[in-house]
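Dear Dr. H.,

I hope your travels went smoothly. While you were away I took the liberty of generating a structure for the chain from your last submission, since the lab meeting agenda had it listed for discussion. I wanted you to have the full record in hand beforehand rather than looking at slides cold. The sequence, exactly as received, is reproduced here:
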Amino acid sequence: MNISAQRDAVRPKARGTERSLARRAELISIGRKLFADTSYDALSMDDIARQAHVAKGLIYYYFQSKRGYYLAIIQDSVADLVTFAASGIELPQVDRVHRTIDSYLRYAEHNQAAYRTIVSGGVGFDAEVHGIRDGVREAIVATIAEGAYGRTDIAPLARMGLLSWVCSVEGAALDWIDRPDPHLSRDVMRELLVRTLGGVFRAVEELDAGYPAPKEARRED
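The corresponding predicted structure, in token form, is as follows:
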């Protein structure tokens, strides 16, 4: 699956008239602001309708339920993350990696409640939230692979190396937003994650010479 297809899988296409799609998009935009730093359980539908200045029935009309509304908000916000991470192909390889990691950290920092939901799997075991999370993982792996190896259809060993790095980034970013520290700015976190990615590239090359580490990830002898 290419990056564009992965982005579409994260944000399913809505159906309806142009006017109804615009209204739905407006409600999602409002919801993204409401849920940016507020957990799913902290807002009732009455709270949401009041703060959004709309009738509660309108939200039910477009999203069927509070959960449906929340999932649509998460899908929309992470699709923006995936789109941004996958762009910038004209940039030098190292700059694109920095940009991708920085955008990921920015998302976690500015959408903390949604990020916690995605990484933890939602309310209980939520298969749809897991699906969103898996889509983001695959999109980030594809973005890094394309930058490092010039293609997204990489061998299982190389994919597993990049996937293990993405999973470690999830845990590190979660701890970073939960325990903010002035010594761990976003710039410091980005540099740390870039360097650990370099270690993954070198490990992959040692195990499979067909996937040489980018020159920026190589250690000077």
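Two observations you may find useful: The longest helix spans residues 127-149. The mean pLDDT is 84.

With kind regards,
E. W.
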